[in-house]
From TrEMBL:
It holds the Pfam family Ferritin. Residues 29-166 form the Ferritin/DPS domain. PROSITE patterns: DPS_1. It comes from Gordonia caeni. Belongs to the Dps family. It comes from the Bacteria. This is DNA starvation/stationary phase protection protein.
Amino acid sequence: MSLTQDTPDPIDFTVPGVASRDATAVITVLQDRLNALNDLALTLKHVHWNVVGPQFIAVHTMIDPQVEAVRGMADETAERIAALGGIPLGTPGAIVGQRTWDDYDLNRADAIAHLGALDVVFAGILDSYRRAVTSTGDLDPVTEDMLIGHTRSLEQFHWFVRAHLETPGGRLRTSGAYTEYEGARHAQG
């Protein structure tokens, strides 16, 4: 047995009613969600520490409850992986080694710039969450239900971010932004 592994070992057990091959597929999806949630919690905390400007206090205090909720989602995800017979990997190396997205690059910046960048971050996370919901539905409805609950909360956090970026006429200032820097520029512009 190796202390490091590139691919998970076949699972010896899973929850009743879920076939081992289905559990393995679900665990793979959940590990990706765990990496995304751990990354999001760290990114949100980074924004919390580095936000400046007139909206500082509003954004600073809005972010901490999101961090705690995302950490709770990560814990629930890791526990589901374990219940399905997998090994949840929550180390920094697992996040960096397995993620398919770039690191958050904004440092000290105006609150609106960070919110514009977070709009892009949340849009990406929500897109991947919806794919995860779809891919787990037929394999494990319990996991699907958990992912739907996470999606609901993440959509609310995204709405909180976007409320700062919406014009009185209902236009989203970050519309058409695909990178964090584009989101930050559009939000300020």
